[in-house]
Amino acid sequence: MNNVVTRREELQQLRARADMATEYAAEMAALRSRKDYLAEYDYFLDLLGLLPHPERFRERFKKPLVGLTCVQAPLELVDALGFHPYRLCAHASSRQRLVSSQLPSLACPLLKSIRGSFHLDESLERLCDLTVIPGSCDWMAKLPETLEGRAPGVHVMELPRIRESERGQRRWLEEVRELKRVLEKRAGRSLSRQALLRSLETHARAWRAWHLLLDARSQSLISATWTTVISHAFLMGDTEGWTDRVNRLLRVLREQPPLSGTRVFLAGSPIFFPNLKVPQLIEEAGMHIAGDELCSSERILAGPALGRDRSVDGLLRSLAEQYHLGCSCPSFTDTPRRLANLLETLHQRRISGVIYHVLKGCHPYDMDSYRYEKIIKERGFSFIRIETDLSREDGKNLLVRLEAFRDLLHERS
Amino acid sequence: MNLTRSRLLVQSLSFGILTYGGRFGLNLGHALPCLSCPYVNGCGGHCFLMALQGSFWGVQASLSALAGPRGLETLRMLALFILLALQLSKLWCGWICPFGTLQDALTWVRSRLGIPEARWSWATSDRLRWVKYIFLLLLLAIPLMIANLGLHGDYGLPFCQICPAKPLMPLFTGDTAHLAIDTTNAITTAMTVLSLLLAGGFLAGMFFRERFFCIFCPMLALLGLVQRFGLVRFTKNVNACVGCGSCARSCPLEIRTVRAELVKRDVMSPECMACMTCADSCAHDGSLSFHWLKWRIFASSAVGAARRFRKGLFS
């Protein structure tokens, strides 16, 4: 009987790997066949192409891997201790199918995709020496238990939901200090101030390049589909190489004609490779995403963690605050700035419509969408809420709604 | 504009002028809104706090004296102080004060040694900020008590007697006289011992905590009272702020109200000393800005924040 089960599991794994390879290859081919494709994107596509091939990834990057979910764990700290930070988030339907019978049908598709990756015997996720999970939303809080020993090491960070209190800020600093201790133990060495400073500078340069690329997107020089590819590739390659390639791309983009399309803002749940359905449909409907607030896009980098205390502990405090206070994840109890920032961006970038993306099962963004719709409309902007998952079946339906939204924006302009 | 370099340049020049200017015939008067210590031989100008204490003491708080020449002199100096304070407001503290520059130098040394900064709770910070008002009250009240309630004259210039600048700043001219204990009588002995103890304590405090003395400085309290009418404005675009806390972390006095403000545009708090480090550290274009009348002096920008790293801020 056990043999039968083992054989079935082997077959399931083989099928999943084949599905995954097909899914990634199909998305890659679709991207390469786009009209706005440039040779400069190959570097980022090649990095994403490593996702289904962990052995190639390990050959290219010899460092031990630390897998991270969400955007609250400081990358600089992981990098400074000699680990390669790797973002576990992906939108792969082939992966989520693997665990469809083990998780609620209405569970967050992102969680299912991550959990599915751990189900594969040979995946980058399983190769991670340590998996760091800040318990941002309820799904992420439950993820460690559902892994059932499939990750070699899991470290959970308890994320304080209330940030405006001294208690909350202290608790998160303690969590960051604890992460440092855990990583030091794994690395077998102490965190040096110089290494942390170098990592801070490296990431500040990456943030600067990313910021300029977002400016280029705001000027319609690059589409959101490509910026999503580039943002996902950020933690696939080495940070300096990625920064260098983004800067090179910027030089090329400045010579490109601007893209056409009605300018819109994309809010809500994150979007990860290989499912870029939402930005692709928005562009197909004749709109250009000139700004977003996604943790998978504009918010992938927390920004330069500046502070006056330059001791190791002072730098840790800067990192803790930058990643905690500066994060606009809706899982926090106090997010008064998120909506104000969104409205400010609409004014600054001359955007008249907001597309609010809700991944079915992503409750915090879903909860916020109703309040946001009310306030955004009251301020005179157009608003559309689209709810979807990782399937492709609703593509045509969504496209019709998005085209109607574009027409509405045209009428109002 | 490289704010760090510009400020360092202005601070160095101010330190030189205010500490040694008198030796070259420079006299900026007795109403300067910064701790330019009058006990420094050959200084270029005097801190207004000495004049403020001395005037009240000399006038003896009588109306007839106020109407006389000494009263007029008091009013002239007060008017001059207000004029200077209105022109540059807190820039006197963040950019010009020589005692502030000394504190920044100590912080630089600690920072290079990688020694963590001393920290305390929000509640302690909130309590400590009232001490400077108590100092201000005492430095006004004691001279009046000498004049009207028979308090001994050796309590005169009470703040100057215990101000840590008195024994420390003359050292820059090689003068160690103020490190001695004055045993003329019990009061002078007690005051000089207290002065040295406070100077030692503040020196340690200033090493382990940036701008430690400014938390207690009555000049900052005095400037805080007139800042509302000053020409220097510190404003925030509350909608552009993401609340990352860079401003509070970079602020030498760890002012939290700038980050916390969600509505008001004017964010200059009584504790602010207009060093502009908060705006320099803010990575959001135009979120924080300083103006002199309608002219912008400095505003936060992504380019500026990234440059601070590139120029080796932390190296």
TrEMBL record, chain A:
Coiled coil: none annotated. This is 2-hydroxyglutaryl-CoA dehydratase, D-component. InterPro entries: FldB/FldC_alpha/beta. Belongs to the FldB/FldC dehydratase alpha/beta subunit family.
TrEMBL record, chain B:
InterPro entries: 4Fe4S_Fe-S-bd, 4Fe4S_Fe_S_CS, Electron_Trans/Redox. One of its GO terms (molecular function) is metal ion binding. It comes from Pelobacter propionicus (strain DSM 2379 / NBRC 103807 / OttBd1). This is 4Fe-4S ferredoxin, iron-sulfur binding domain protein. Keywords: 4Fe-4S, Electron transport, Iron, Iron-sulfur, Membrane, Metal-binding, Transmembrane, Transmembrane helix, Transport. The chain crosses the membrane at residues 130-151, 186-205, 212-231. GO terms for cellular component: plasma membrane. Residues 232-261 form the 4Fe-4S ferredoxin-type domain.
